[in-house]
Design a protein that fits this description.
- With 399 residues, this protein is α/β, with parallel strands linked by helices.
- It folds into two domains: 2-44 and 57-161, Serine Threonine Protein Phosphatase 5, Tetratricopeptide repeat (Alpha Horseshoe); 180-388, Alpha/Beta hydrolase fold, catalytic domain (Rossmann fold, 3-Layer(aba) Sandwich).
- It is 37% helix and 15% strand.
- A seven-stranded mixed beta sheet has the order 3-5-4-8-9-10-11, sandwiched between helices.
- Residues 1-34 have low confidence and may be disordered.
Length: 399
């Protein structure tokens, strides 16, 4: 869901927090399904360690299974999504986020008892946001059933018993190090000049995963791609995700969040400056997905002279942060907006509203819609490629 109060927008997209391109990574326990192996994997003493075929039973890619489950969820094929999430959590047993997402699937199917059981598993794996669960529309069909209410109450009591008071928290600004993953052209020549594309990942994702968005897309043109990582880390169960904005109450901590937002923009600009010193860059494009798209709007529209174009994907324009004078000063900046018509995390209307606002202020905006959900689409990356290399794609824009 998207929370917006007093000019601060924070994307709290929990189902599919990796936002279509990120995949839970290191530190998560992986267990092969291997049901046809003949072994009872709950009884290690029965396993023949000299069986030469045993390794074949581990040729399963949990990331692909998870991606299919997320795709089915976006398409509202909840029984299919449930099967894929079951297959995934059988492989990755302690991924709290996706145990929760599996519970969501059962909630959407109206299976109260099973939904409650998987919520319990998610909490056991580290999920703690029961307040989100109480408001999650995925559980609307089961929320008032006795078994679900009893389970949630018991889990809340458990978390309350385990809670402790760490005292008052104070936030101090600091200089830190954040990773940037850089992809160079296959035949990179250090003496040659290239365009630079800077990518800002979605809420809960990582720069490492977002560095892969161009893989297997088979697009033309040579450019340098740099995926930056957001500064604010948080736990998604046993895994770590990152946010571009502070995860705090936007009313109570409004000034602090605005300060942190300004620091985030400064970090992005400093990263671009460092990259321009490291490589021969002729022009810079900024793109981002979901929460990263919101930051793309903010950074680009407040610093239009630094960019040859911006391409927010699956995001929203926060007109409380991007002021009227920002819009007037930036109207010469080319803008590409990409949004899935079936997006259930950041509604499609967020994209069309941004398009309307920018056009009203005289911007040259291209809106690319695709038949899909909350994900980075090939259509969107192709359109960005066209923005970077217009001569190569002459006549293709309206195809």
């Amino acid at each position: 869901m998207k929370l917006k109060k007093n000019g601060i927008s924070v994307l709290m997209c929990v189902f599919g927090v990796v936002c279509g391109v990120g995949i839970p990574g290191g530190g998560i326990e992986r267990i092969s399904a291997a049901d046809d192996s003949g072994y009872d994997w709950t009884r290690p003493e029965t396993i023949n360690i000299d069986d030469p075929a045993i390794v074949d039973h581990f040729d399963v890619n949990p990331s692909k299974i998870l991606a299919e489950g997320w795709k089915a969820y976006q398409e509202k094929r909840y029984e299919v999504a449930t099967r894929y999430y079951l297959a995934y959590v059988h492989q990755v047993r302690n991924d709290a986020l996706n145990l929760y997402n599996l519970a969501c699937c059962y909630g959407l199917l109206g299976r109260a008892e099973t939904a409650a059981a998987w919520v319990t598993k998610a909490v056991e794996a580290g999920w703690k946001d029961l307040e989100h669960l109480r408001n999650d529309p995925d559980f609307q069909a089961v929320r008032d059933t006795e078994v679900f209410k009893t389970t949630v109450a018991a889990l809340q009591a458990k978390l309350d018993r385990e809670a402790f008071d760490p005292g008052r928290m104070m936030m101090l600004p600091s200089r830190g190090m954040i990773p940037v993953y850089i992809k160079l052209p296959a035949d990179f020549d250090p003496d040659k000049t290239y365009p630079l594309v800077v990518g800002l990942h979605g809420y809960g994702d990582t720069a490492e995963r977002f560095s892969l968005i161009w893989e297997e897309r088979k697009l033309t043109g040579e450019f340098i791609y740099a995926a930056m990582e957001a500064p604010f880390a948080f736990q998604t169960g046993k895994d770590i995700g990152y946010s571009w904005f502070l995860r705090m109450d936007p009313v109570e901590h409004h000034d602090l969040m605005m300060t942190a937002s300004d620091m985030t923009v400064s970090n992005v600009l400093a990263g671009i400056d460092r990259l321009k010193k490291e490589y021969r860059i002729d022009k810079v494009f900024l793109t981002g997905f979901s929460q990263g798209a919101c930051l793309t709007f903010i950074t680009g529209l407040k610093n239009p002279g630094l960019f040859a174009g911006i391409a927010p994907m699956g995001g929203w324009l926060d007109t409380d942060v991007v002021a009227e004078n920002d819009l007037k000063a930036a109207k010469a900046l080319p803008v590409l907006i990409v949004h899935g018509t079936q997006d259930s995390i950041v509604p499609y209307e967020s994209g069309t509203k941004a398009e309307q606002v920018l056009k009203e202020h005289g911007f040259n905006v291209r809106m690319v819609s695709f038949d899909g959900g909350h994900t980075v689409s090939t259509d969107g990356l192709k359109a960005l490629n066209q923005m970077m290399f217009p001569a190569t794609h002459e006549g293709e824009e309206n195809r």
